[in-house]
Amino acid sequence: MTKQSFAIKNMMCAMCVAHVRKAIEALDGVTDVNVNLASSSALIEYDESKITPQQIKEAVVAAGYDMDTAPLSGAEDSGEDEKKKSRGFLGKLLGR
Q: Which of 11, 53, 62, 84 is the most buried (most CB within 10 A)?
């Protein structure tokens, strides 16, 4: 399994995030997807023997967005950091 973060272009709202996530999740070989609007990125865990970044990009383009096939640096760490930041931010909003 490979876990990499890719830049996603043209996302403007939560619905965009949902469309991108759904398009990527539907692909055979993808095991986990975390799409982040704030960083315009998607952290994707996939089986490189079943699917390539180019094939993932084709699904993202078909959904109406764009994706760089070159992984972002620090991909594995950034996804976890973004999840922690989101939980912390939501906790503050909810008064927790």
A: 11
Q: How many helices (H) and strands (E) does the chain have?
A: 3, 4
Rounded distance between C-alpha atoms, residue 80 and residue 1, angstroms: 17
Give the chain's domains with CATH numbers. 2-93 (3.30.70.100)
CB 45 within 8 A of CB 30: yes
User: Each residue of 61-72: pLDDT tens digit?
Assistant: 999 999 999 989
Which residue is associated with the tokens 């950034």? 78
In DSSP terms, 2 is beta-bridged to 46
Answer for the pair 69, 54: CB distance below 8 angstroms, yes or no: yes
**Rounded to the nearest 10 degrees, how much is the dihedral formed by the CA atoms of 15, 13, 72, 43?**
-30
Structure tokens at 85: 């930041």
**Residue 67 and residue 74: Cα distance in Å, rounded?**
17
With 70 as the cut, is the pLDDT of residue 94 above it? no
